[in-house]
C-alpha cells in the first residue's frame, strides 16, 4: 500500500501517459518485426499486417490518451480528426484496390509524396512552438521541413514522370542551378537555426525555406532519366522516413523516431543496392552524368537479321531450355499475361521456361517480379541475374522482351561505354537469341547494343504484346 | 554550440534510438530477395506514415475558436498522413496476395 502511494507520487506520473508510452513501445516493436517479416517471402503478408496493427494502435491510443505536455489537457477536435482520417483512409483504400500493377511505381511515389507532405506541414505548423524552445528544437523542425518538402515535391515529379505526364528535362546548366539551390536552401536553414531574432520575425524565412525546398525537390528529380527511377524512388522513400523521424523529435515521440529512421535506413540500403545494380554511384545518378549524349561507341555494326513468326514458333517448340528476359517494354505493352500463356504452352510441349530478372528491370526495385506474379507466373520460375548467368551457355533460346541496356555486352567489353561495368544478364551466351522490340530505338543509355548484331540473334519487331500473341497462335496451330 | 550540447543532453534517449534504429534498419533489410523489393518499399513507405501521430497531436491541440490557415493545413496533413498509411498498407497487401496465390 505504502509502496503504491510512493509510486503514484513520482513527478509527472499518470496511468494514461504510461499506457500511451507503452502503446508506442508496442507499435515500434511491431514496426520492426513487421519490416523483418516483410523481407521474407513466407511471412511478408503477415508482416505487413503487423506493421499496420502497430500503426493503428499508435493512432488509437494517441487519440484517446494524448495530453498536452505537462498541462494534462486532452485532445480536442476529435470529430474533425476522425473526419480527416476517414477521408484519407477511404481515398487511400479505393486507389490501392483499383490501381493497375504496371502503375505501381507511380502509386508508391504518390503515397510517398503524401507522407513527405504531411511531415512538411507538421514541421511548418510546429515552427512557432519549436522556436520558443532552443536551437536544437529549431534545428529538427527546419530539417523536417526541408527534407519533407523535398520528398513531397520530388515524389510528385517522380509520379508525373512515371505516369508519362512530365518529360525528362536535362540541361547542362541544371547541375549548377541545383547546386546553387541546395546551397541556398541549406544556408537559409542554417540562418534560421542560428538567428537570434524572435520567432515572430522569422516566419517569412520559414515560408521562404518552405518554397525553396519545394523548388529544389522539383529541380532535383527533373533531370533524372527513366532508367534511374528505381534509385530515385528508393531515395525519396528514405527522405520521407527521415522527415517523419525529425517530426518525432518535435513531439519527443519515440515511435515516430524509430519508425521514421527505420524506413530511412531501409530506403537508403535499397538505394545503394539499386546503384550497385547499375554500377553507378549515388552522386552520379543525382548529378545525372548519363545524359544520353553522344557516346564513344562507334565501329562497325554488322547486319540485323529478322525472324518470321513460324520460324520463331518452330525454334521455341523444339528447344529444351528457354529463358525470357523481360524489361520495361514488357510492362508498357502489358504483355506479362500473354508471356505467361506462351510459357504455359511451351511447358506443355516439354520445354523448360525460366525468367531472368535484372535488379533494375522495370521502374522500381523488384517491379518486374510483381508484374509477373500478377500474371500467375510461379515464383520459382523467376531467377535472379547472378543465379541464371552461369547457366546461360546451356540455354537454347534467350527471348529478350522490351529490355535493352540490361543485356548489352558493351558492359563487359567496351570500356568507353557509359554502361561499362554494369552487371548484365548474359543473353549473348545463349545458343539462340530472339529480341522482341518495337523498332531499332536505343535503350535509355542511348547507345547501340551489339547484341542486336550478334550472329546468333534474330529480331522480331513489333509491339511485345501482339508479337507474343501471334507467336502463341502460331505455336498452337503447329 | 552550448545550446546544441544541451539539446543533445535533453534528448539523449532519442538520439540513442536514432543511432540504434539505423543499424536495425540496415540489419532488418539486408539479404532481402529481389522479388520482395517492391512490396518491401511500399510497406516501408506506409510505416513512414507514422507522421500521422504528429498530425493527430497537431490538430488535436489546435484552437478551433477561429478559422485559420493553420487549421486547414493541419487537416490537410492528417489527410495526407492517412492516405500514406492506409493506401500504403492496402496496396502492399494486394501485391503480396498475388505472390501468395502462386505458392499453391
TrEMBL record, chain A:
It is a multi-pass membrane protein. Belongs to the PNT beta subunit family. The transhydrogenation between NADH and NADP is coupled to respiration and ATP hydrolysis and functions as a proton pump across the membrane. Residues 21-473 form the NADP transhydrogenase beta-like domain. Its main location: membrane. The chain crosses the membrane at residues 6-35, 47-66, 78-96, 108-125, 137-162, 174-196, 202-224, 231-251, 257-275. This is NAD(P) transhydrogenase subunit beta. Its EC number is 7.1.1.1. It catalyses: NAD(+) + NADPH + H(+)(in) = NADH + NADP(+) + H(+)(out). Keywords: Cell inner membrane, Cell membrane, Membrane, NAD, NADP, Translocase, Transmembrane, Transmembrane helix. One of its GO terms (molecular function) is NADP binding. InterPro entries: DHS-like_NAD/FAD-binding_dom, NADH_DH_b, PNTB-like. It is found in: Cell inner membrane. It comes from the Bacteria. PANTHER family: NAD(P) TRANSHYDROGENASE SUBUNIT BETA. One of its GO terms (cellular component) is plasma membrane.
UniProtKB/TrEMBL annotation, chain B:
Keywords: Cell inner membrane, Cell membrane, Membrane, NAD, NADP, Translocase, Transmembrane, Transmembrane helix. GO terms for biological process: NADPH regeneration. It comes from Mariniphaga anaerophila. One of its GO terms (molecular function) is NADP binding. It is found in: Cell inner membrane. Residues 15-101 form the NAD(P) transhydrogenase alpha subunit C-terminal domain. It is a multi-pass membrane protein. Pfam families: PNTB_4TM (PF12769). The transhydrogenation between NADH and NADP is coupled to respiration and ATP hydrolysis and functions as a proton pump across the membrane. This is proton-translocating NAD(P)(+) transhydrogenase. The keyword Hydrolase does not apply. The chain crosses the membrane at residues 14-36, 43-59, 71-92. It comes from the Bacteria. Its EC number is 7.1.1.1. It catalyses: NAD(+) + NADPH + H(+)(in) = NADH + NADP(+) + H(+)(out). GO terms for cellular component: plasma membrane. It is an enzyme of class 7 (translocase).
Amino acid at each position: 500500500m505504502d509502496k503504491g502511494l510512493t509510486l503514484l507520487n513520482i513527478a509527472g506520473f499518470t496511468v494514461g501517459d504510461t499506457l500511451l508510452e507503452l502503446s508506442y513501445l508496442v507499435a515500434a516493436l511491431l514496426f520492426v518485426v513487421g519490416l523483418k517479416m516483410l523481407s521474407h517471402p513466407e511471412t511478408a503478408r503477415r508482416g505487413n499486417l503487423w506493421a499496420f496493427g502497430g500503426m493503428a494502435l499508435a493512432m488509437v491510443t494517441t487519440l484517446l490518451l494524448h495530453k498536452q505536455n505537462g498541462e494534462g489537457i486532452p485532445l480536442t477536435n476529435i470529430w474533425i480528426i476522425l473526419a480527416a482520417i476517414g477521408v484519407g483512409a477511404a481515398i487511400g483504400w479505393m486507389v490501392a484496390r483499383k490501381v493497375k500493377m504496371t502503375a505501381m511505381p507511380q502509386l508508391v511515389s504518390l503515397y510517398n509524396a503524401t507522407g513527405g507532405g504531411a511531415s512538411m506541414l507538421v514541421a511548418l505548423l510546429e515552427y512557432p512552438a519549436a522556436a520558443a524552445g532552443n536551437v536544437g528544437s529549431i534545428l529538427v523542425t527546419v530539417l523536417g521541413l526541408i527534407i519533407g518538402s523535398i520528398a513531397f515535391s520530388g515524389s510528385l515529379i517522380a509520379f508525373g514522370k512515371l505516369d508519362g505526364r512530365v518529360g525528362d528535362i536535362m540541361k547542362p546548366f541544371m547541375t549548377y542551378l541545383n547546386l546553387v539551390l541546395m546551397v541556398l536552401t541549406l544556408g537559409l536553414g542554417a540562418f534560421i537555426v542560428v538567428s537570434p531574432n524572435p520567432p515572430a520575425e522569422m516566419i517569412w524565412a520559414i515560408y521562404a525555406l518552405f518554397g525553396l525546398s519545394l523548388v529544389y525537390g522539383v529541380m532535383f528529380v527533373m533531370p533524372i532519366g527513366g532508367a534511374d527511377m528505381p534509385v530515385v524512388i528508393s531515395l525519396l522513400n528514405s527522405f520521407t522516413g527521415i522527415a517523419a523521424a525529425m517530426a518525432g523529435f518535435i513531439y519527443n515521440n519515440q515511435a515516430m523516431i524509430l519508425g521514421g529512421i527505420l524506413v530511412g535506413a531501409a530506403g537508403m540500403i535499397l538505394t545503394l543496392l539499386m546503384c550497385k545494380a547499375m554500377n553507378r554511384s549515388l552522386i552520379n545518378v543525382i548529378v545525372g552524368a548519363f545524359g544520353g549524349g553522344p557516346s564513344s561507341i562507334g565501329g562497325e555494326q554488322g547486319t540485323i537479321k529478322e525472324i518470321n513468326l513460324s520460324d520463331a514458333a518452330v525454334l521455341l517448340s523444339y528447344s529444351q531450355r528457354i529463358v525470357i528476359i523481360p524489361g520495361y517494354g514488357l510492362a508498357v505493352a502489358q504483355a506479362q499475361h500473354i508471356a505467361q500463356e506462351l510459357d504455359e504452352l511451351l511447358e506443355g510441349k516439354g520445354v523448360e521456361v525460366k525468367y531472368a530478372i535484372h535488379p533494375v528491370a522495370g521502374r522500381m526495385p523488384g517491379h518486374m517480379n510483381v508484374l509477373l506474379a500478377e500474371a500467375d507466373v510461379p515464383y520459382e520460375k523467376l531467377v535472379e541475374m547472378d543465379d541464371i548467368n552461369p547457366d546461360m551457355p546451356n540455354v537454347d533460346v534467350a527471348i529478350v522482351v522490351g529490355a535493352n541496356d540490361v543485356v548489352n555486352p558493351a558492359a563487359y567489353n567496351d570500356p568507353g561505354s557509359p554502361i561499362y561495368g554494369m552487371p548484365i544478364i548474359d543473353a549473348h551466351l545463349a545458343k539462340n537469341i530472339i529480341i522482341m522490340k518495337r523498332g531499332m530505338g536505343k535503350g535509355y543509355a542511348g547507345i547501340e547494343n551489339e547484341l542486336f548484331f550478334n550472329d546468333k540473334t534474330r529480331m522480331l519487331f513489333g509491339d511485345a504484346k501482339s508479337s507474343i500473341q501471334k507467336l502463341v497462335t502460331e505455336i498452337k496451330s503447329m | 554550440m552550448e545550446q546544441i550540447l544541451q539539446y543533445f543532453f535533453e534528448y539523449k534517449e532519442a538520439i540513442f534510438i536514432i543511432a540504434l534504429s539505423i543499424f536495425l534498419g540496415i540489419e532488418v533489410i539486408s539479404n532481402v530477395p529481389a522479388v520482395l523489393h517492391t512490396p518491401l518499399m511500399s510497406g516501408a513507405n506506409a510505416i513512414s506514415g507514422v507522421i500521422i501521430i504528429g498530425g493527430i497531436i497537431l490538430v488535436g491541440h489546435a484552437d478551433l475558436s477561429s478559422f485559420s490557415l493553420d487549421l486547414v493545413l493541419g487537416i490537410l496533413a492528417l489527410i495526407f498522413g492517412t492516405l500514406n498509411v492506409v493506401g500504403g498498407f492496402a496496396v502492399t497487401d494486394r501485391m503480396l496476395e498475388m505472390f501468395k496465390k502462386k505458392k499453391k
